[in-house]
Amino acid sequence: MNHVKTYHSMELTTEDGPLIIEGHIPSAKLEDYEFHNDLTAFRPPKEQHNALIGIAKLTEGRVIIARFEHTIVGYVTYLYPDPLERWSEGRLDFLIELGAIEVAPQFRGSSVGKSLLQVSMMDSFMENYVIITTEYYWHWDLKGTKMSVWDYRKMMEKMMNAGGLVYFATDEPEICSHPANCLMARIGSHVDQQKIGAFDRLRFKNRFMY
C-alpha cells in the first residue's frame, strides 16, 4: 500500500493560550520542536521525543501533535502493530494501530485528546485503514487523575469516539485479562468486506466465540 499522508491543522483555545493541533508532522519538523517535560507516560521525555521522530520516518507512521508555541504538549501516533502482537499476524497492510496518545497534565481538560483524533481523521486516506487501539488499564494515569478505573475507561471511550473508534469484542488474552481493558477500532469507508473478514479472524481465534 502507498501510504499517503497529508497535513491538516486546527487551533484549540485553552486556559494557557492557543494550541495548534497539526499533523502528520514529518520527522525533520519534530526534531525542531521542544518536547514537554511532563510527557512521561511511556518513557522519559527525550526518549519519547526520539520515538516520535522514528515513527514519523516509517512508511506507514503518522504523528499528530498538540503544540504550544514551539513545544509539543500532546501527541497521537499511528503505525503497524508490534510484530509480537496478535494484530501483526498476516501482515495486513491496511491495519494500523493508534500506538500512543498522551497530553501533558497542564493541558488536560481542554479536549486536546479529542482534537488530536479529529485532526487525524481529517486525512481522507485514513478511510483506507482499519485503525485499532488496545486499551489496558495499567497504562492509565489513575493516580494523577484520581479517577476510578471505570470512570477512566468511560473517558477513554468517549475520547476515542471523537475519532470514530468504537468498542469491538475480542478473545485476545491480554485484553480479556481484565474487564476494563478493551479493543476499539475504526473501519474506514474504503475497507472492503474481505479485509473486514481478515480483521474479524484476528479478533477471534476461538471459533466458539466468533
Automatic annotation (TrEMBL):
Its EC number is 2.3.1.-. Pfam families: Acetyltransf_1. GO terms for biological process: acetoin catabolic process. Pathway: Ketone degradation; acetoin degradation. GO terms for molecular function: acetoin dehydrogenase (NAD+) activity; acyltransferase activity, transferring groups other than amino-acyl groups. PROSITE patterns: GNAT. Residues 7-189 form the N-acetyltransferase domain. It comes from the Bacteria. InterPro entries: AcuA, Acyl_CoA_acyltransferase, GNAT_dom. It is an enzyme of class 2 (transferase). Keywords: Acetoin catabolism, Acyltransferase, Transferase. Monomer. Belongs to the acetyltransferase family. Part of the acuABC operon, which is possibly involved in the breakdown of acetoin and butanediol. Acts as an acetyltransferase inactivating acetyl-CoA synthetase AcsA via acetylation at a Lys residue. This is Acetoin utilization protein AcuA.
